[in-house]
Write a structure and sequence with these properties.
Elements (H helix, E strand, L loop, with lengths): L6 H21 L6 H22 L4 H14 L12 H17 L3 H9 L15
């Protein structure tokens, strides 16, 4: 991992990502699946806002661990149609963008990904935060 980011840097990056998600929300009507595209963008924006709020009162390493916990709790929806499960796919996309932002080691992301439950499998309640 590159040099750790400060929480201020994390919040600035998340603010930028929220703006992009907002732009995507505005252009949703122009897409093949406007409702799904809108929900995907809204879901990303929700994650960015939640992580930003968490970063207000926690250290950057705690924010990263919190994001990893959220990622581990997401069910896999890979292989489903593009417009299916926009909430889950939006959360997944937002968290993966966050990992890129903070320079998370790809191995750590792969390990977290490997712990994610299958869709329709009972989720581990201790993993959700």
């Amino acid at each position: 991992m590159k040099e750790p980011m400060t929480t201020d840097q994390i919040q600035l990056g998340l603010k930028h990502y929220r703006r992009i998600a907002r732009q995507d929300m505005l252009r949703a009507p122009e897409t093949p699946h406007p409702d799904a595209f809108l929900r995907h963008a809204e879901s990303r924006r929700e994650i960015y806002a939640a992580l930003g709020t968490f970063a207000e009162t926690h250290a950057s390493d705690e924010v990263i661990e919190h994001a990893l916990d959220r990622y581990r709790a997401l069910p896999f929806v890979t292989g489903t149609a593009e417009h299916e499960h926009p909430d889950i796919k939006g959360h997944e996309n937002a968290l993966e963008n966050f990992f890129l932002l903070v320079g998370l080691d790809p191995k750590a992301r792969r390990e977290a990904r490997s712990r994610r439950p299958r869709l329709n499998a009972p989720a581990d309640p201790s993993a959700a935060t």
